[in-house]
Amino acid sequence: MAVDLAQDAHVQDLAERTARFVREVVVPVEEAHGGVLPSDGERVRLQDAARAAGVFAPHAAPEFGGHGLDMCGRAAVFTEAGYSLLGPIALNIAAPDEGNIHLLERIASEDQKVRYLAPLAAGDVRSCFAMTEPSPGAGSDPDALSTTATRVDGGWRIDGRKWFITGADGAAFAIVMARTSGVPGDRGGATMFLVDADNPGMTIGRHIPTLDESLYGGHLEVEFSDCRVTDDAVLGEVDEGYRYAQVRLGPARLTHCMRWLGIARRAQDIAVAWAAERQVFGSRLADLGMAQAMIADNEIDIAAARGLILHACWELDQGRPAGMEVSIAKTFTAEAVWRVVDRALQLNGGRGVSGDVLLGRFLREVRPFRIYDGPSETHRWSIARRAVARATR
Fold first, then answer.
1. pTM for the complete prediction?
2. Cα atoms found within 13 Å of the Cα of residue 41, Cβ hemisphere only
3. Are residues 273 and 384 in the same domain?
4. Which UniProt keywords apply (predicted)?
5. Which pLDDT tens digit goes with each residue over 94-106?
6. Residues 191, 241: contact at Cβ < 8 Å?
């Protein structure tokens, strides 16, 4: 079957309007605050501006106020939004809310959609996804899940510790992965639960200091102790949590790639503009062979990442699992974006490491992506296993 990656007129128009909005409205705020959103009030202001510009919630279904884009459509728009660190927040497509919106649209009951999805898609509340645990719990190996959910009268009791829970500070609710059968190390046996932040059994702990700061709400430790929820808090079916996680994680890995590809393009634009005007050794920096090689390698990495992202998106839009394509796109893009930003910083010399441009901030933000959503090494292991299995059928 031929792969058709052409975008329709609506997607092209939305991408162009998003690009203008980000450059004209969002980038000045980003540059004024060093790439870190200063307050929740500023988040609300940017989101109001995105609504006024008609670019808000491009991924959400129309009945929830969005544009209902498929994965290929999201690739075009999310990359434009990602041109600024604050663009995804403005459009309400930042992690973890974007992935949670996608999951709730697919899995939630009608009552859960009204209670949780509608306000989340509207930007009225934020959320978090509580899966990762301190060692030896779930991380790269989700089967190590140790948080438990035990049946009690009227519902469930959740007990366990989570960490690196992005956006937990200020989230209205958490989607919590807990083991409902088996023991850590067993495949399967996990269930997703919707837990309101005011539940007395859920305690928000410390902010974990990290390289990155642009993911709003931080990365936190969260404790569940005798956390009681009713049966209607189960998201989907009991013991099907790992299957639902794939509904969320595959697309979420790609949307991360899309957003960071936007930052790679921004870094390249900064580098090329500087190389074109910087005079060194009697000529423009852009006329020197070593600088040209870095500029060219950046263009190659950006183009290759875009192609891999679009291919994986197309596979998902066809209803295929696309595990191989997603892992390849995620691994390559995470490393390519780092290379692009690093080269851009190098081309800018002392200016690159100064606070006069945001390349240093970009470098700190993109480095963790080689770990988030599965380390490169885990994805390479998965890619190799699939390749061997395909060859030995």
1. 0.95
2. 0
3. yes
4. FAD, Flavoprotein, Oxidoreductase
5. 999 999 999 999 9
6. yes
